[in-house]
Amino acid sequence: MSVTMQMTTDQLNAFIDAGIPAFRAAGYHVNQVADEAVQVRWRYDAGAIRPGGSISGPTMMALADTAMYALILARLGPVGLAVTQNLNIHFLNKPRDADLVASARFLRLGRSSAVIDVLIHAEGQDAPVAQATGTYAIPARTG
Asked: Residue 36: exposed, middle, or buried by beta-carbon count in 10 A (0-12, 13-18, 19+)?
C-alpha cells in the first residue's frame, strides 16, 4: 500500500537546514523520499573516527535520529515540534571508512507517536553496521 508523503527531498533538506543548520555542516543530508521510507546520508569525515578506528557511535546515533525526524516530516509535513522520546541502537559491525546511509521506515504511526526502524549501512559494505529503533512524540495537529 502506497502512502502519501507530504514533503519532497528538497523540501525536507530546506526545512532541516533552516531549523538545524548544524546537521548539514556535520554532513547529514536527506537522499531520498520513497512511498514508505526515507534515506539519509552522512558524508564521511575522518574527524568522526574514534580511538580504535571506527566511526563514532554518536555519529551513527545522530544519523539514525535524523533519519527518523526526516521520515516524520516527509509523512506529516513540517511538524517542527516532533521530538525523540526514545532511541535504542545496536552497533552490529565496524563500518568501513565510507559514507553511511540510513534507511528509516515506520513500524507504527499513530496520532501522538510513531515507532520507527532505521538500518544503517556503510557505502560499499553489504552487512548493516547499526540498527536503531526509536519513538517520536508527535504534537497535536489542528485543522
From this structure: middle
Q: Is 52 left (phi over 0), alpha (psi -120 to 50) or beta?
A: left
Query: The CATH number of 9-137 is which of 3.40.50.300, 3.40.50.720, 3.30.70.890, 3.10.129.10?
Result: 3.10.129.10
SS3 at position 20: coil
Instruction: Name the 3-class secondary structure at 122.
Output: strand
Rounded to whole angstroms, the Cα distance separating 59 from 28 reads 10
Write down the domain spans for the chain.
Answer: 9-137
Q: What is the pLDDT along the chain (143 residues), one digit of tens a residue?
A: 557 889 999 999 999 888 888 888 889 999 999 988 999 999 999 999 999 889 999 999 999 999 999 999 999 998 778 899 999 999 999 999 999 999 999 999 999 999 999 999 999 999 999 999 999 999 886 55
Phi then psi dihedrals of residue 6, to 5 deg: -90, -20
